[in-house]
Amino acid sequence: MTTRILIPSGVLGLGFEEEALWCGVAAKPDLIAIDGGSTDSGPASLGTGTSKYARAAIKAEWRVLMKARAEAGVPLVIGTCGTAGADAHVDWMFEITRELAAELGQSLKIARLYSQQSPETLAARFDQITPLDPAPEVSVEDLGSMNRIVALAGAEQIQEALNTGADIILAGRTTDTAIIAALPLARGEHPGACWHGAKIGECGALCSSDPTSGVIQIDFDQTGFTVTPLATGAKCTPHSVCAHMLYENSDPFILYEPGGYLDVTEADYTALDDTSVRVTGAEWHPGDYTVKLEAARTAGFQTTLLAVLRNRRYVENAQEWADKLLAFLDTKLAASLDLPREAYTIDIRLIGVNGALGALEARKGDPTEVGAFVIVTAPTQADATEIAKLINPFLLHYPLTRDEELPTFAFPYSPAHSERGALYAFAMNHILKLEAPMDAFRLETETL
Amino acid sequence: MPTLAQETVKIRSKNAGPFWVTVDLFCGTSEAFDSIRGRLSSEAVADLYRVDAARLKRFDIARLNVIKFSFPRPVPQGAPLDRDQHGAQYATLLEEMSLA
């Protein structure tokens, strides 16, 4: 048997070539799978329970995919709904789906797979939680102070959702690969090929010569898989496919998934023609059923300030100026604030000098101007803004030496400070061992 | 002396999850791959990123003419002192490095 999965793009919200999608529908896929997020953009999506992408972008693309599903008559699966895959993200995606079902006049069975973990349940299973390397320190008490905790579902939970006969599956946090691997695994295709092909396909056409076209299809069978990009002119080569194993992977040969790991060391990549690549030889090694945990917590509140240094002498001595200013502020603020010094941080990033790399920067340039970007992190927004206001006059006027007229730098707007709101931090990089795959996940179905 | 950017086809970096960064050097040809891998020590790369050499993973992948390094991020993605959420600018340090 062959199982054909149509993958419209690496993530919903990034866009895809619609013509290529309809080619994929015409080729009669067994399932349409698309990812809805990842940790790529940082902890804020999980911390706030909101999507990184605009609702309008998600709805416009989801409309096309819902039409494609109706035409193909096969399940449409989205993993890691709404960027981070917490319950709020799944419910948000369900709302959009409900609106579209009404607008398109579709009658649908929807399955929602929830991946969010309650702190209480996790606390009861604390002895089944193991840190990965490196992982933040987490105590049982810490669990309750996190904004949201999710577990990454694997193929088994998606299979459970498929078994409900749902037309559309809205999944919370899943591994990028699970939504693609689930059906071919359930149909008995080669397990190594299922996971390997899913990894190659999880970013859509990124494994091809035309990454932005989005759409690819993968055929899984008993010995391997074949990947084909569907946009006109797009090509997969053994090199482009194999190279995708490097992408965002710390180890290009080993990939851990719930219930085992994939080893592609012995994989063989062959060009079938100008566009398709055949891959065999990956091995799946079953093991304990563990799922990865991700969490976000509020790590303070931030207020920022920006001053631009244009004066030649200050530009040339920007680092010395920033170091002196920070030392001065340390004493000055301690005298004015009730907060202990360790409760807040002040970071001055010199844009134009080493803004992106900080202490790692090796190049010394000769910038025209330097942006002094000040980030204050404190326990509350009010504290952060109070500190920023204390900093304000010194950021504007601080001199390199005592015996000179006070300089005045360029503030780009008034007021000079901006409140950023909460700062979120990734709070877990752990795995949870389960007795059965559905132990940490919930499935709900509804007919619209 | 040429920089590594001049000696390779492409050098890129990206997070591998919020706690790791991975850097890929695409050497282009087997000649360039052999030449660069002989001259680029793991210790030099560890020094460049100020990570413990024992925690730096290295993969010399002849099939792709790629040398890949992975290491724990100096600070996790999104932490107060993180300056580059996606870790994509880390590659520039290797791009501008020259090998004897």
Instruction: Report the biggest beta sheet of chain B as strand number plus sense, adding barrel if it closes.
Output: 4 strands, antiparallel
Q: Counting H and I runs of at least 4 residues, what is the number of helices of chain B?
A: 4
* Count of distinct strands of chain A: 19
Q: What structural category characterises the helix and strand content of chain A?
A: alpha+beta
**How many H/I helical runs of chain A?**
13
Q: Which residue ranges of chain B are poorly predicted, with pLDDT under 50 across at least 5 consecutive positions?
A: none
* Rg over C-alpha atoms of chain A, rounded to the nearest angstrom: 26 Å
Q: Which overall shape of chain A is indicated by the principal axes computed on the Cα atoms?
A: elongated
- Sheet-strand content of chain A, in percent, reads 25-35%
How would you write the strand order of the largest sheet of chain B?
A: 1-2-4-3
Overall shape of chain B: it is elongated
Task: Determine the most extensive contact between two protein chains.
Answer: A-B, 42 and 39 residues
Into how many domains do the coordinates of chain B divide? 1
Instruction: Calculate the terminal CA-CA distance of chain A, rounded to whole Å.
Output: 33 Å
